[in-house]
Write a structure and sequence with these properties.
Helix content: 40-55%
Number of strands: 7
Structural class: alpha/beta
Oligomer: single chain
Length: 338
């Protein structure tokens, strides 16, 4: 792949800052435009023509910012452009010690990141419409869950300071909105399930994922959306790293001997769901429950063992999806006899 231009785009809610560097790492263009479809079309048609650029020889690098990316990505997909979605943390860490920050500077840093890493370009695979819809529904459910938690936790905290009659009144007034939120959560979950059933591939992956002990509906859907239906992330180890459950060694020479531990750079929501899946799995009769019990009895830290369980769950899901089979307890590979 011969890339001649590296286009860094800093995406915000209202604007896009666009910087282009050439094959020598020299800045040749900068512009700020509104983050809406009409402006994107006019701007991109203009600079692509004026600078004599080709979509097949240019890479468009940006940080993933959720829905703020949508107008830009929609336009780039129509042009069959080469899109590189990168973690903001990855870009900032690669820059070393930097001073100052604004959108214009950030777009240049993104362009230079793409140029510096041009031999390791990671092209983004656009998710299908159903994956985007499932992601939006999951986000809506998360907001409802958060709102319900805020209402419920507040009253529990107030018990320490208010009298019983006041607390009773607050609970009564709080009951209706909490119940409505519960109904809304259930409606969203029903919508998610109905949407899954409309797509043969997604429904198959869903059934395979939920066949693994500990994996419920929401965790399965989260796995499907965060892996782009297991097309963008295809390896269990990479997903373990992405979700913050992969242990990393912390040592150097003879003086630094830290504990092996997980990284804080992770998808925290996914990590939480996998933790809940692990807690569920160790309650089910079978290998994982016995493994957890055995390790704890050996004196292992419970959280470390739970993290190992999370990794086992990830490995099982990815293996089953890859082999297109349901998980079977005591499953054994059929070995070919010599």
């Amino acid at each position: 792949m011969q890339i001649k231009k590296f286009i860094g785009i800093d995406v915000s809610k209202k604007t896009l800052d666009i910087t282009i560097v050439d094959s020598q790492g020299k800045q040749i263009y900068y512009e700020r435009i509104a983050n809406e479809s009409k402006s994107i079309k006019i701007c991109f048609m203009s600079f692509m023509k004026n600078l004599n650029l080709n979509y097949n020889e240019s890479v468009f690098c940006m940080e993933y910012t959720g829905i703020y990316n949508l107008p830009l990505v929609k336009w780039l997909k129509k042009q069959s452009a080469l899109i590189w979605m990168e973690s903001g943390t990855q870009i900032s860490k690669s820059q070393g010690l930097v001073r100052g920050k604004n959108d214009k500077v950030d777009s240049l840093r993104i362009a230079l990141y793409a140029f510096s890493n041009r031999h390791n370009i990671k092209l983004w695979k656009a998710p299908r419409e159903i994956i985007e819809k499932l992601s939006v529904l999951l986000s809506l459910r998360n907001r409802f869950i958060k709102a319900k938690k805020q209402l419920s936790v507040t009253i529990e905290e107030q018990k320490l300071y208010l009298d019983k009659n006041t607390i009773k009144t607050l609970k009564k007034l709080n009951a209706d909105p909490v119940n409505e939120l519960m109904k809304s959560i259930q409606k969203v979950e029903k919508e998610i399930m109905e949407l899954i059933k409309t797509d043969e591939r997604i429904f198959r992956i869903y059934k395979i994922a939920t066949s693994v002990d500990g994996i419920g509906m929401i965790t399965a859907v989260n796995l499907i959306t965060t892996t782009n239906e297991f097309l963008s992330i295809t390896e269990a180890k990479k997903y373990a790293c992405y979700s913050g459950v992969a242990p990393f060694e912390h040592s150097s020479g003879s003086s630094v001997r830290g504990k092996t531990k997980v990284s804080h750079m992770a998808n925290k929501k996914t990590k939480t769901l996998l933790h809940l899946a692990a807690l569920s799995a160790i309650q089910v009769k079978g290998e994982i429950k016995e493994y957890y019990k055995r390790k704890v009895e050996q004196g292992k830290n419970k959280m470390s063992v739970l993290n190992a369980v999370r990794n086992k769950i990830i490995q099982r899901v990815f293996a089953c999806v890859k082999q297109d089979r349901f998980f079977e307890k005591n499953y054994q590979f059929n070995l070919v006899k010599p």
